[in-house]
Amino acid sequence: MKNSMVMLRILTILFFFSASLQAQKFENLLQTPPMGWNSWNTFACDINEEVIREAADYMVSSGMKAAGYEYINIDDCWHGERDEQGFIHEDKEKFPSGMKALADYVHSKGLKLGIYSDAGTETCGGKPGSRGYEYQDALMYAKWGVDYLKYDWCNTENINAKGAYTTISKALYKTGRPIVLSICEWGESKPWEWAQDIGYLWRTTGDIYNCWDCEENHGDWSSWGVMQILDMQDGLRKYAGPGHWNDPDMMEVGNGMCTSEDRAHFTMWAMLAAPLITGNDLSKMNQETIDILTNEEVIAVNQDQMGVQAFKYRSEDGLETWIKPLENGDWAVTFLNRADDDRSINFDWKEENIKDPNFDYSTDFSEITYAVRDLWKHKELRSTKRVLKSSIAPHDVLSLRLTKN
Ligand code: GLA
User: Fold this and answer.
1) How many angstroms does the Cα of residue 203 sit away from the middle of ligand 1?
2) Whose CB among 93, 156, 232, 317 lies 3.0–4.6 Å from 120's, allowing a Cys bridge?
3) Which atom of ligand 1 is nearest to the CA of 206?
């Protein structure tokens, strides 16, 4: 009896000890994909506090905040130097009021502030990285009032990704401030297989490039068009869910692609339950860009509480059909025309047998009739009792929400 009590004690101690070796996450953060803005795609290293404050202002005045956008994320190049004790400080010329004042300003608008660092010795932009300073950096971010950390992977020769991201995750957790950890390791060591208890989202690919279908070669690395990034998501949907998302990178909507391409890009990111982090200049948006980014019916597909990514149901002659299970038995169905000319749709629901390949969802259109709503035209179409007939322009989508009648 006595022995078994001692044994139980030892086991309990061992359990708590091993639990403390695990990275820890704040509960209930990012139960739906994050929505916000990030400075990199438009401003790269050319940032300052004015740019960040303006982004916050325009996020409110454009209606984006009301549509659900929340994070204002500063990317690379905000850094000044470390002091003698090793604490990092902001670049005083670019951020003369200081990071704390900037966080206060962003918070005063009802928004949250994100910042950027790197697991290596230097960031990709050559600024001080966090390697060896993880706990100090996390403390500083918490002190400033930061809510989100994007943590990059440049200059990390010979270090282990899971180990490095575990260290920063634990350092953030220790501060007691709920800070989102956004893993930016470009999918190199398959973070979807190990990061679920470490971060809240992980990049699945290299950088996005502002084009529909291209590879931009930078010598020893490439950035990728929207269609290339979409194809690289293949096989990853089973790893994502509330609090742990696949991140196919920040969006290029409003950065120069044509309107249909922007619409298709936005729709597919919504279907993928991807972070909706915009990368355009919010102070220079035209009405079309605002209308795309604030389409609440498409955003609702992205923010669906079930957090299930879409799967590719069919691909034929440049026309793809993507399907996403939604709450209450609803479904999102998106037809994506990747071809350079029109594609017609002739979709007889009753002939289709939709079955989720990874999770237990399926439809039976002969038994159940759904109302069909066009998420871009904002109007009801004929129900699933009737054949869906339509035509889609090149590089555009027809996106629908099916609701049980
Ligand atoms: C990497 C990241 C980008 C961006 C830059 C900043 O390339 O993948 O998203 O953060 O670094 O230097």
Assistant:
1) 11
2) 156
3) 8
